[in-house]
Amino acid sequence: MPNELIHTWFPAYRTAILETDFTQISCGVRKALEAICDRLRGPAPIDEEEKQAIADAQRGLAKLRGESVDEWNSEAGNGTNTGV
């Protein structure tokens, strides 16, 4: 697991993957991806371990985003969406 003191993107990633309110997942995923992009654009070198962690995080966030959209569509289709 990446060290959040070294990997500045990790707290945003952790927040996104631990979000339980599917209506908030998109926002968390976006923030995590922005943090990863900021890290990739930054001046500090990225070692192989962090490159792999970033690649894994990006794949996980993409899957999470897809699942949250599927869940939202399912809830909306069932008439249980409260609009919150």
Question: In brief, what are we looking at here?
Answer:
70% of the residues lie in helices and 0% in strands.
Explain how this protein is built.
This protein has 84 residues and is an all-alpha fold. It has one domain (10-77). The chain is 70% helix and 0% strand. The chain has three helices and no strands. It has helices at 10-18, 22-41, 48-77. The protein starts with 9 loop residues before the first helix and ends in a 7-residue tail after the last helix. 20% of the residues are buried. The mean pLDDT is 85.
Write the layout of secondary structure elements.
Blueprint: H1 10-18, H2 22-41, H3 48-77
Helix pairs in contact: 1-2, 2-3
Question: Radius of gyration over alpha carbons?
Answer: 15 Å
The largest sheet is: none
Helix content: over 70%
Number of helices: 3
Order of SSEs, N→C?
A: HHH
Main traits of this protein?
3 helices; 84 residues; mainly alpha
